[in-house]
Amino acid sequence: MPRLTAIVLGxxxxxxxxxxxxxCPVCALAWESDPRVKERTQTSVAVSGDGKHWTLLNASxxxxxxxxxxxxxxxxxxxxxxxxxxxxLTGAEIDxxxxxLHLREGQEFSLFATAQTQxxxxxxxxxxxxxxxxxxxxxxxLGDKFTLPGGLQAELFSVPGKVxxxxxxxxxxxxxxxxxxxxxxxxxxxVFIPGAASIPDPLMQRIGTADxxxxxxxxxxxxxxxxxxxxxxxxxRMGHMPVxxxxxxxxxxxxxRARRIYIHINNTNPLLIEDSRERAEVERNGFEIAEDGMxxxx
Length: 298
Description:
The protein is an alpha/beta fold and 298 residues long. Helix content is 16%, strand content 23%.
């Protein structure tokens, strides 16, 4: 029977941690090699049902580095092969899809995404480097169940969010622009939601029946980046509900029975500091903080 395994390849938000041009209080600790913080690459997760065939949930710009430090994703037998059999995208943001360009060396795999995301990729000539002779692009409708390599079943579902930053101003957001992923195998379910502006009832119902949820932990407070003087937008303006506060995800997910793990954590977020007051608060409320290399048996 397939057994659902997940490896967190990267757990940071766009830019990674520490961010290359940032010396906010949290990044400063990383630049100073403070042992209370760990470097993190941009968010991506590998999942498998058989330990041999792996699907990437998003392909971050750091994918080459992530593969290099994850033995399960490295070539094993022949001169040209890879255990990476598929990539499944939650959207077309740079930190969700740019890593596809690391996979352009004539290796067969399937690329699953909504029609909206596939259209965005198709409109960018850079992604023509992914030859159709090797990469099969599959358009997935929301709510349709489909099969992934290695004995996994998957479903995409709509999540409140926003269009990619580089497409802002090009039109209104369509359903399917920002999605979550529901993965199952052997009776176990993992839900992956790296970006969410809110948790409407249908989304809460889905989370409530999962075994494990990897959820958007971008900012601890909505005004975090503004308050620190490193940005001009709130978290909600960027399509990310905060962790804390009346409208935060920690309160919204308080009664969920699933294993709850925050992922996609911004470089300004004090959750990255292992002995911070904020970290203690979320752990006291039953949440975990994802880190690169974390292995999850669902």
